[in-house]
Amino acid sequence: MKLNIFLTLFIAMSFLTAAEYQINLNWDEFEGECNGFISGSIGEEHSFLSGAGAATTLNGKLISVGEGMTIEAQQIFKIDSEEGYFTFWVKDKFADDDMDSDPTLISMSKPMIWVFKDGNVIDLIKVPEGLGLTCKIFTLDAATGEVDRQIKYYPKSRIIVGQIVDAVSGDPLENTTINIIDYMKQSRQTVTDETGVFIFEVEIGGYRLDIVKDGYISSFAEVRMGADESPREIVCALSPNIKEFRIVLTWGSSPDDLDAHLSGPDPEGGNFHIWYRNRHPVGGRDFLDRDDMTKYGPETVTIYKPAIGNYLYSVYDYSNQDDKRSKKLSRSDARVFIYGENKLLANFQVPNNFRGNCWHVFEINERHEIITINKIDFVKDATEIHR
């Protein structure tokens, strides 16, 4: 009891100093029971808070005032930091307790979120209608003050939700078999629906997804449900059977546009550098099978006529190409899958928490060996990526 009183007094005293950011959440209590939830990182530290109770984390820089503690809003969060990256959610309070199954509860309660910086409103978000007991609202880059609205409903919180698509066409793949294996080596299985989507309810921990469909090269992905218990998303692009090297890029809900860059020896002499603005044929074939500009991917490159020499593959953040300080590429959950000889040869996940607009992923040497690079830096001009 004394500890709770001390914590409440500590948080109340924190109001005496202006927080860099403040997030206010209101909703119609007669229609639903909402709960704000924020997860974030400052440097290498990562943590999260629920709005239902008074608490602090990240060395006191992330604060939940506690529900009903002020007359300004039903729940208030404060971020006393000029750096860090945060994600804000609105959840039904009983989303994962199997007490409420009505997916309209959040929508009916009409949540509204005010975002302040230094006491000034920088965004006001009225959550639109939708179906689900968990809703992702926005991300906040504390270094820049940018609020990126990413409003999306999910059926629950502790879920892995994915979509399987064709790596060349981008079309969803129905009836794809997904086998999920937990850290205890226990497995479950499901298949994708007509939109290529699958969902697994999970607990905290790591999982491996094995993905199989006739006529396609089998693949896998690893996903972790963290202690924040927020939905995890993954897009996996399966390649039709192929012997040549096929390189497939997927990513998350942000940024909108990542570009694949491949350079290597031209069979007719010299070298090429292929990307969406330079789609010249190599050996009579366009190696860039698919360009995607609307998040998630896939973006696919195939080396149809390998020549003697080294190939370099990189991913460029076109959406944030001029921002030297941006970590959005690093936070994109980008994944690269390399197929060939009718099997998955390698896969890579973008390194986390680095600044830069270009991820140098790997090279293929003259012996057709895949050599890992896996570094992020800033490239001023996309045409200079492989020079």
Characteristic key phrases:
387 residues; mainly beta; Lipoxygenase-1; Immunoglobulin-like; 2 domains; 6-stranded antiparallel beta sheet; 5-stranded antiparallel beta sheet; 28 strands; globular
Give an account of the 3D structure.
The chain folds into 2 domains: about 1-155, sav2460 like domains (Lipoxygenase-1); about 160-385, Carboxypeptidase-like, regulatory domain (Immunoglobulin-like, Sandwich), CATH 2.60.40.1120. Helix content is about 5%, strand content about 45%. It has 2 helices and 28 strands. It has helices at about 1-15, 105-110; strands spanning about 20-25, 35-40, 45-50, 55, 60-65, 75-80, 85-90, 110-115, 120-125, 135-140, 145-155, 160-165, 175-180, 185-190, 195-200, 205-210, 220-225, 230-240, 245-250, 260-265, 270-275, 290, 300-305, 310-315, 335-340, 345-350, 360-365, 370-375. It has a 6-stranded antiparallel β-sheet, covered by helices on one side. Strands 3-2-7-10-11 form a 5-stranded antiparallel β-sheet. Strand 13 and strand 14 (about 185-190) form a beta hairpin. It is globular. It starts with a helix and ends in a 10-residue tail after the last strand.
Could you tell me how far the N terminus lies from the C terminus, measured between alpha carbons in angstroms?
Answer: 64 Å
How many β-strand stretches?
28
Q: How are strands sequenced across the largest beta sheet?
A: 4-5-6-1-8-9
Q: Structural class, from helix and strand content? A: mainly beta
Would you state the CATH class of the largest domain?
A: Mainly Beta
Order of secondary-structure elements = HEEEEEEEHEEEEEEEEEEEEEEEEEEEEE
SS element count, helices: 2
| Helix percent band | under 10%
Q: Indicate the radius of gyration in whole angstroms.
A: 23 Å
How large is the share of residues in beta strands? over 45%
**Which residue ranges are poorly predicted, with pLDDT under 50 across at least 5 consecutive positions?**
1-17
